[in-house]
Every structure is written in structure tokens, then in C-alpha cells.
Amino acid sequence: MRTVFCLTTAATGIVAAVAGCSARKTQAASDSGNNTRPNILVFISDDQSYPYASAYGCPAVSTPGFDFVATHGALFTNAYVTSPGSSPSRASILTGRYPWQIEEAGTHASSFPSRYPCYPDLLEQAGYAVGYTGKGWGPGDWKISGRTRNPAGPEYNTLTETPPFTGISKIDYSANFSHFLDELPPGKPFCFWIGTNEPHRGYQKDSWKETDHTPDQVQVPGYLPNAAVVKGDILDYAVEIEWADSHLQKAIKELSDRGMLDNTLIVALSDNGMAFPHAKANCYDAGLHVPLAICWVGQIPEGKTLHEEVSTIDLLPTFLEAAGIKANAGQSFSGESLLPALTGEKGSALTHPALSGRERHSSARPANLGYPIRSIRSGNYLLVRNFHPERWPAGNPQVLKEDGTPGSMHKAYFDIDGSPTLSYMENHWNDPEVSPYFLAATALRPEYELFNIAEDPDCMHDLSKESSYAQLFGTLKTQLQEWLEKTGDPRVGNNPEIWETYPRLSGPMRKFPE
Fold first, then answer.
1. Quick one: which of 190, 226, 356 has its CA closest to 282?
2. What is the CA radius of gyration of the chain?
3. Is residue 104 within 8 Å of residue 87, measured between CB atoms?
4. CATH 3.40.720.10-classified regions of the chain
């Protein structure tokens, strides 16, 4: 294990965790209900891009928990979130709907209308015990919507621990999960959400130096400058990924020790991409493409690798099908169950593409305006539509200080989380070795962008103006428009600016020069 806080005992325990599953079937059935109704454990990290897990061969991180789920089930190589920001992405996971189908919940830090049911509600109505620890849905205000609890379920956050580094949450996620299991009535299936706050910023700078990480483990993405400060920042990010994974390891071992592992559907994923320029808050691959692994011992064949594009809206229908629950009349979800693909049934291909979008991410422009984007991933290609190309994608370059005077230029890109990498790029924006990356993250963009993900996963080479791609470009534009119309996106409807009326209910409000 690489870092000082990883759990040797937990890692050893999960390697052999399923060895005795068959012998424990009778006990598991009595503990967790009828074997045809699985328990469901969702483990969701905060701001982790593909391919930052060792199951994908990434040398910068060691993730035995995630790798266990992948090895004993299915590893997805093309899993996409519906939005590159926490709040709308989590709302989509919970509702099985695109962000543009859930009103205020589809933008950042607003409310969550109670008329949109979430999968914990549906499972609870069907007899499941539900709960969450760590970060559930957020940021935003669910109380103002009339909800009585976080959309992720009842909260279990009372147990804490002393983390090894600043920036890491004190919440003991796995201990709170164990507490939830202690309260679980015999014979009752459960659905639990472990939402780590890691690897969300901020990281303790140079925490990697207190581990056995080394800079040569880092492969700097092609959308960031290959500088020592960037490598160190990525290693600090890796430290937090490993901390989060250590709790997944503990949770798996807890299930194994209780004889419940063989009847638990485990899903491990992230809510959006890493908090670096050109990634999080962008509908480029690094903002939308996340790790995903799913296992269900005895039901999903081990060692599967699925390369089809899937979306996190597909999780809710997957859970309902696994639990044998049919949606009530009037309930509709945009996702499709992944169980046929997971179990190897014929005709398992999904009928929808990977659609994504964003509106407001932070207070980064005059009048709190957002930066609306929609995208479609189809085969090797990603088409991005920027609905207001006259706006700055990462935020206006200059903010007004408290006294009303303009601040420094290139210090107000608030749609990018503050970091050593961002500071380095802002301070060296005119350096020829940095400028291309800085401009890719902050400069004005055209209305449409087209990328070949197979050849350019970093999304640095826009093909939309190249004549050889004209036919493909036109086809994807039509497909995106048709899918947005089909799914009722206001951006292509009669009231496209309704998004700007949804209030921002958490986070600072800023003023900018006109």
C-alpha cells in the first residue's frame, strides 16, 4: 500500500472477502432479506476523473477497494456523468433524469424540488432501510424545497476520526456505515450512500511527500503544463483518492465480516471530474468521464470490462430492476438499467447516448450568469455546444474588490477551484510553455467544438472547422439537438434563460466590471 494511512488489514481482508461467500449464503439471507432483493451500497467520491484508479493502470494511485469491485464484477471504461459539477450530477444520479429535467436541481447550489422522487425514496417505499454518510446531495438547500431530509436519505455523520492531512474530512465514513448496519432490522435489505468529501479541494500542499509517492508516477494530462508544481498537485490529489478508497476497503470488509457481501450490489464511482483547469465544470472528457465499477457476487460475472458509453442516469433504473421494483404510473426516468449488460444478456446495448450539460457553476460572471453547455458523446467523438460563446467559460478575468475597484487581471476564474496549478497558470499565462493550456481553460470558445476522444482525450484539438469532419459534425449537431428536444431541455425550448432565474442559495456572491 502506498500511503501512510492505507489499511493493511482491510486490504488483506477484501482480497479474500468472497472466498467464503457461498458458505455464508444462509446467514446472509437471514441478515439482509430475501436473496432476490440485494442490498445496495453506493460509494461516490467527490471530483475524481477517469483514469485515476489502479484498476485502469494509473501509476499515480493505489485503489484496492475500487479494484476489488472491478475484479469481482464489471469495470466501465466509458462512464459519463450528466454534469461536470457536484450538485446537478448527484441530482441526476438520485433521480435518473438529466439536469435539464429537474429544474432548480439541475444547476449548482440551488434547491431540489420535492416532486422529483429519488431512488432512496423509492427503495424505502419498497421496504428498504436507507441512509447516507459524508456528502449526500449538495451543495444547495433541500429544506427550502420542503424536503424533510437530504435526497440521499437519513444522515449518519456523527462518528468522526482524526485525518492524516488537512483538507480531509473528519467524518469516519466506514464507521458510520457500520453504525447504520448495527441499527438494521433483521431480514431488511438496505440501500446506503457513502459520499466521501475527497478528493475535493483543498488538498494539504505537498502531502504526497509524507507518503512514498514520487513525481515519476505522474503522467501529466495533455491539458495541463508539465511543471513540477502541477505534478505535486496531482500527487496531493492522489493522496486524497487513496484516503477515500481506504474507506471503501473498510466498507467491503465490514460486509464480508457480517456475511452480507454476497448479496450486496456495490457501485463505486465519482460525481464529476478532477478539480483542475479544463476538467471539473467543463463538458470536456476530463470533466465528465469518471471511474465506475459495479459488482454483485454471484449475479454479475467477475472480471468483466465494458467499453460501451454509459451514463450515471442509468443507475436508478439498475437499482429498481435489481430490487424487483416497477416504477409507478406517471414516473418516468431517462436512464436504462445496466443489469442486462452486467449479466451478459443479449440485446443489452443502451438506446441513449451519453448526454451532459451544465449551467451556473459558481458566482463567476456579472449578474451571477452561468455558462450553459451541452454535449453528446457518440463513439469516439465528443460534440460540445456552448450556448453563450460571448461569455467567459471559466469566469470573467477580473473581479471587483470590496471597495468597488477592479482587482488584478486573470485572478477571477472562479469556475475553476483554487489550486497551486491554477495559480501557476495564472502567474505564467504569457509564458509560451503555459499559454496554450491557460487559454484552453479560460479563453472564449466557439459555439460548437468537436473532439476525437480516441486520439485526443485531452480535448485540445477542435475539429469542428475541419472540412474532413463536416459530415460527422453536422450529424452530431442534429443528434444533440434532437435529443435535447426529446428530453425537454429548456435551452432549446421556448424559455432558454429560465436557468438564470433559479436562485443561488449557497456560496459567495461576487461583483464584476461590466
1. 356
2. 22
3. no
4. 8-321
Q: Is the peptide bond before 393 cis (omega within 30 degrees of 0)?
A: no
Closest residue by Cα to residue 358 from 116, 103, 106, 93: 106
**18-27, 234-243, 409-418: which has the minimum mean pLDDT?**
18-27
Task: Collapse the DSSP code of 428 into the 3-class scheme (helix H, G, I; strand E, B; otherwise coil) and give the result.
Answer: coil
Contact between 318 and 327 (Cβ < 8 Å): no
Q: Which residues 6+ apart lie within 8 Å of 187 measured at CB?
A: 30, 31, 32, 33
CA pair distance 348, 319, nearest whole angstrom: 16
C-alpha grid cell, residue 199:
478528493
Q: Which residue matches cell numbers 465490514?
A: 254
* Nearest to 381, CA basis, from 461, 442, 437: 461
Higher pLDDT, 13 or 408: 408
Which SS3 state, helix, strand or coil, does residue 353 take?
coil
In this prediction, residues 482-497 reach a mean pLDDT of 97
Instruction: Find out whether 168 and 198 touch, Cβ atoms under 8 Å.
Output: yes
Task: Specify the pairing of strand 373-378 against strand 354-358.
Answer: antiparallel
Single-letter residue type at 311? S
d(CA 63, CA 45): 12
Tell me the C-alpha distance between 169 and 244, whole Å: 10
**352 and 314 Cβ atoms separated by less than 8 Å:** no
SS3 268: strand
**Which residues touch 344 (CB under 8 Å, ≥6 apart)?**
301, 304
CA atoms of 68 and 73, how far apart (whole Å): 8
Nearest 5°: the CA angle 292, 304, 293 is 15
Q: Domain 8-321 belongs to what topology?
A: Alkaline Phosphatase, subunit A (3.40.720)
- Phi, psi (rounded to 5 degrees) for 104: -55, -35
Helices (H), 96-145: 119-125
Among candidate residues 207, 269, 109, 203, the one with its CA nearest the CA of residue 417? 203
In sequence order, the β-bridge partners of residue 134 are 195
Phi/psi at 14 (5° precision): -75, -25
**Cα angle for residues 43, 311, 230 (degrees, 5° grid):** 65
d(Cα 238, Cα 66) in Å, to the nearest integer? 14
- Give CA–CA dist 484/440, Å, rounded: 26
DSSP 369-406: ----EEEEEETTEEEEEES-TTS-TT--S--B-TTS-B
Q: What is the pLDDT of residues 157-205, one digit of tens each?
A: 999 999 999 999 999 999 999 999 999 999 999 999 999 999 999 999 9
Contact predicate 137/150, CB 8 Å: yes
* Alpha helix positions (H), 268-314: 285-288
Residues in the chain: 514
DSSP 481-504: HHHHHHTT-GGGSS-GGGGGGSPP
Q: Exposed, middle or buried, 101 (CB in 10 Å: 0-12/13-18/19+)?
A: buried
**pLDDT computed for residue 452 by the predictor:** 98
